[in-house]
């Protein structure tokens, strides 16, 4: 009887330890699935013109708790754009928008990193703007 109690105690401790170490992985898996589902739902309404220059083409969940927006500048060619200058101008506007947009509350709570990928009218990627969650929380 004593060996059965010891066995159950060891089994319980083993389960608790394994559960503790796998909890982060489980939470990450749930987060990944939530981001994939969010992208899927958004993509049902895309592509969508955001303004006369910018089209939101698609969204995608990426590894590292990252949600990506793929956009096209429909009236510009990559060769006509200075990517570094573009990023310097866009990044502060994006961060300020993220900070002030109440729709981003869930992203803040879930600590989602955001990636903006810009393409030109020929579908050539010319800019990637990474926004870690700490920059807009």
3D architecture notes:
- This protein is an alpha+beta fold.
- The chain has one domain: 2-Layer Sandwich (GMP Synthetase, Chain A, domain 3).
- It has a five-stranded mixed beta sheet with strand order 1-2-3-4-5.
- Strand 1 and strand 2 form a beta hairpin.
- The longest helix is centred in the N-terminal third of the chain and has 42 residues.
- The protein is globular and about 40 Å long.
- The N and C termini lie far apart (55 Å).
- The N terminus is likely disordered.
Q: Write down the domain tally.
A: 1
Q: Please describe the biggest sheet, giving its number of strands, its sense, and whether it closes into a barrel.
A: 5 strands, mixed
Please identify, by name, the CATH architecture: 2-Layer Sandwich
CA-CA gap between termini? 55 Å
Find the structural class using helix and strand composition.
alpha+beta
Can you list the strand order of the major beta sheet?
1-2-3-4-5
Total helical segments: 3
CATH fold-level name: GMP Synthetase, Chain A, domain 3
Give the number of DSSP strands: 5
Report the radius of gyration as a whole number of Å.
22 Å
Shape annotation? globular
Tell me the β content. 15-25%
Low-confidence stretches: 1-24
Order of helices and strands: HEEEHHEE
Helix content: 40-55%
Question: In a few lines, what is going on in this structure?
Answer:
The protein is an alpha+beta fold and 137 residues long.
Q: How would the blueprint of this fold be written?
A:
Elements lengths: L1 H42 L4 E2 L4 E9 L3 E8 L9 H18 L4 H6 L2 E7 L5 E7 L6
Parallel strand pairs: 3-4
Antiparallel strand pairs: 1-2, 2-3, 4-5
């Amino acid at each position: 009887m004593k060996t059965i109690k010891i066995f159950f105690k060891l089994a319980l401790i083993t389960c608790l330890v394994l559960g503790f170490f796998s909890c982060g992985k489980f939470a990450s898996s749930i987060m990944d699935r939530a981001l994939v589902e969010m992208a899927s739902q958004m993509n049902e309404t895309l592509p969508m013109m955001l303004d006369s220059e910018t089209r939101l083409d698609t969204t995608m969940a990426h590894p590292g708790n990252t949600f990506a927006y793929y956009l096209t500048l429909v009236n510009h060619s990559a060769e006509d754009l200075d990517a570094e200058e573009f990023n310097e101008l866009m990044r502060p506007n994006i961060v300020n928008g993220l900070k002030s947009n109440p729709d981003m509350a869930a992203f803040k709570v879930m600590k989602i990193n955001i990636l903006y990928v810009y393409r030109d009218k020929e579908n050539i990627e010319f800019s990637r703007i990474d926004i870690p969650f700490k920059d807009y929380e």
